[in-house]
Structure formats: structure tokens, C-alpha cells
Amino acid sequence: MRASSFHSKIKSPAGCVNNQLDLFNHSVIAHSVAEAVSLCRKRCRKTRRTMNARHARGLEIAHFKEIKREGNVWIIPSQTTSKKYTVTLFPQVCSCPDFEAHGIPCKHIYAAEATLALESGQPVPLPVKRARVTYKQEWQAYNQAQTNEKAKFQELLYALCQNIEDLPRKNINAGRSRLPLGEMIFCVVFKTYSLLSGRRFISDLKEAQRRGYISKTPHFNSIFNYLELPEMTPFLKELIIESSLPLKSVEWDFAVDSSGFSTGQFMRWFDTKYGKGEMIKEQWLKAHIMCGCKTNVVTSVEITDGTAGDSPHFKPLVETTAKNFTMDSVCGDKAYSSSPNLQLVLVKGGVPYIPFRSNTSPDDKRSTSTWKRMFHFFSYNQEMFMRHYHKRSNVETTFSMIKAKFGERLRSKTGIAQKNELLCKILAHNLCCLIQSMYELGVEPEFGQ
Questions:
Q1: Is the preceding omega at residue 234 within 30 degrees of 0, hence cis?
Q2: Least confident of 11-15, 100-104, 342-346
Q3: pTM here?
Q4: For the chain, which terminus, N or C, has the lower number of CB atoms within 10 Å?
Q5: Region for residue 407 given its phi and psi (left: phi exceeds 0; alpha: psi -120 to 50; beta: otherwise)
Q6: pLDDT surpasses 50 at 269
Q7: Rounded to an integer, what distance in angstroms lies between the CA atom of residue 280 and that of residue 271?
């Protein structure tokens, strides 16, 4: 396996090298001069670059929005919604979420200052037009990947299923032998990829038999029966992990999140709070995944019911990924903000970019040293932290890719079949990401060795 992209680390700003080294180097002894708690009592201002961004947006509001003043209170409209925020300049306070979360001058405060300067006749610079960030598309590689995807999908899936052992016969002394499990997994995953019904999919299976991917075309009911086998679940999860391994040389930043998939089934309950009588609620499953931030390949997955929490499944996702990949960073939202999760990522050699909740206090006696150090890093390196945390959007993109291509609804009726069908969607997504990487990054996967 080779790839045209190699590991290149992103260095932190020069001003943060010396004072942040001890946060992730466990061989450095903690400072004895100042307590860890005293370092985090107040969050510092962001760097000059972030302040300029807020200032520029404040100038845009001051020049292009209608701002009202009621005594010492300024009514500043939102730049993106119909909301309005109240601002006072002495002292500087704003009712927007940005100011409440970070405690630094926001764009609304800058807008009020600019408006006050305009009223007093002082010169105020015009806002600079911001260029929209765009990303170049490798159209030649993309076109080749899309036009050859179905053929390559069958080829890679066939190689993945080669070393799967067959299930034993239920009754040793009677009954027919089971169909080869590897071939049935090929049929189930290929059907999920095709989005066809079982009956219409048989013609594709006959073509796969002609090409030598399966020895026999099964009945369409056999596909559904094998989808309901609980023995299929561990094999599918293992294939998802194995399908991500060819990309271990290009993936070192990871993102974690969960998303729900509807089942089309409903349960009923009595709503006693509002007295509306019998209500209907749709059942759904939740997929917890960790994916690479470069290729969107899923490196580990856990399937639960729709009401399961996110944080308890963080540990198995990280441990499974760390076994096969070099982990530099892990991005997650505030649902994963806990001391054990932060410590786990640090132990695995990565940096957790998981923001803290707004009511977090380092003065809590129950806080561990890891929690206090990460809170210090989060508070005093906002720009660098948010630059890395922005990579978390890749896991949202991954879920969007799966649902857009393979559907957000599960067609199966039983719980085991729904779980296996969802795993098939994720496995099909991984193979599609691998095919794209073959043409774009030069990756050469080798399965079944």
C-alpha cells in the first residue's frame, strides 16, 4: 500500500510552544510556583487574529445594519438571524452567546463602538470584503472513481469476504448445509449498496456469479434471513475496521459523533403531562462512529438504541481506532466533555479537542489534574483550539454522505436486522471512500492476505 500524502504535523503558534509543552508531555513535572487552579480563574483574550475577525464583522454591522440606542444601551441586530442583542459599553457587556461563552468583546460590542465613533465624527474604516474559502476538487480523480465505483466496490468487497469462516450447521445429523457466510455477507452488503429490493437485486447477483464473486445465486429470502442472524453483527463490525486499514498512512486526525437512523416503526405511549391521549413516536437506532478527518472513512462504530448517551461509547471508539491508527487528535462536541475521556485520548498519544461547557469551573475540588490542564489549554489558546476543533465538521459530513447515498431510513423490521443493515451502510460507505482514495491519493488496498 502506498499513498501520495504523508504525515505532516501542524505546529502550534510560536507563542504557545514554551508555555503549553507540559500540557501533553507527561514527563514534564508540574510547576510548583503557581497552582493549576490559579492559572484558570479567568479566561484570557483571544489572539490578535481572532480579535480582528470580530472587529471586521462589527464594522459590517455598523455600516449595513440599523442600530438603535436607548440611553446607555445599544440594540444591535444579529448579522445572520432576526435576533437582537443589548450592548453596554461602560462596562462592556453583550447578551449574545459569544460574549457569554468567552467573556471577551464580541462583534456587537465592536459595532456599538464603531457607531458611537461615527456619531461623534471620528473616522471609521470601511469593512473589508471577506473572501469565501473554497476547496479545489480533483475532478479527474473524482470522475474516474465515480465511473468505476460499482466494479471496484464488488472487487474490494469480494476480497474482504475471502477469509470469513462458514457458520456451523444447526443440526449436525440433519438438514441442509448453510450457505457460505462470506458470500452471503457479499450479497447483503452489495444489496445495501444498490438500494434495490430483494427481487430486483437478483439480476445483479447473477452478474456477480458470472464474474466469480459468488458460487451460487441465493434466493432473495435467503438474503433477508441472513440479515437477521446475530452472528452477522461481529463480522460486519470487523469488516468495517478492516476496510479502513489501507488509509492508516493518511489518517491521523479523527472526529467522533453520533446520529440517528429511523426504522419506519412506531411505538405508542400515553402522554400524561399534557393530557393529549395516545401519542405516536417513531423508533430509531443511533450510530456512534469515529472517522478520519481527511477521507471520512469510519474507523470504529457502535450501534445503540435512539435514547443512548454519547459519552459512554467514547472509550470503545477511541480504543478500537488507537489499535490500528496513529492518533494525533480527536475532535468531539461538548457531549464528550469529561475527565476520563480527555485522559484516555492523552494516554493514546493524541490531543483531545473537546470544548468545555459554559458552566465549567476549574475550582471544583473534584476536578482532576488532566481536567485542569486541558481547561487551561482551552482557555488560553482559543484560536489554535478552534482551528483544530473545526475538523469535527468532518464527522457531520460523514453522516451526511451515508444518509444521502444509502438512505437515512432502515428498511428491516426486526431489531437485529436493522442493526446489521446499518452496519452494512457504514461498510459500503467505507468502501466508497477507499475507492475515492485509490484514484485521488494513490492508495493500493490489499485484502485477504
A1: no
A2: 11-15
A3: 0.72
A4: C
A5: left
A6: no
A7: 10
